[in-house]
Specification:
single chain; 124 residues; mainly beta; 4-stranded antiparallel sheet; globular
Length: 124
């Protein structure tokens, strides 16, 4: 069972990046996926999540209106589209299976597994 985040890099303020979370070893369609980030010197914080089934999403106030989530169950991949990036979006981004406490519905119990993160740096 693995979750692998990718797509990070350097972006300018106001720019965009798209992160991917590719999973293996389990059926993505049954799980809600959450994205989290850890800014430098700070604790990990939630970014948003996408439900299994209807794909409804929920986001932290800090990214609402700028970030969006989508999923392609056939490709076992969830995408985090980040627009209008700000320096405070800088951090290591992780994906994980999540449960209802994060505001998303899931058909399967979260597994509590974290994959390797991907570093996003927003700087001019």
């Amino acid at each position: 069972v693995q979750l692998q985040a990718s797509g990070g890099g350097l972006a300018q303020p106001g720019g965009s990046l798209r992160l991917s979370c590719e999973v293996s070893g389990f059926t993505l369609a049954y799980y809600a996926i959450g994205w989290f980030r850890q800014p430098p010197g700070k604790e990990r914080e939630p970014v948003g999540c996408i439900s299994s089934g209807d794909g409804t999403t929920n986001f932290a106030d800090s990214v609402k209106g700028r970030f969006s989530l989508s999923r392609d169950n056939a490709k076992s991949t969830v995408y985090l589209q980040m627009n209008s990036l700000k320096p405070e979006d800088t951090g290591v981004y992780y994906c994980a299976t999540v449960g209802p406490r994060w505001g998303c519905k899931t058909d399967a119990t979260p597994m509590g597994i974290w994959g390797q993160g991907t570093l996003v740096t927003v700087s001019s």
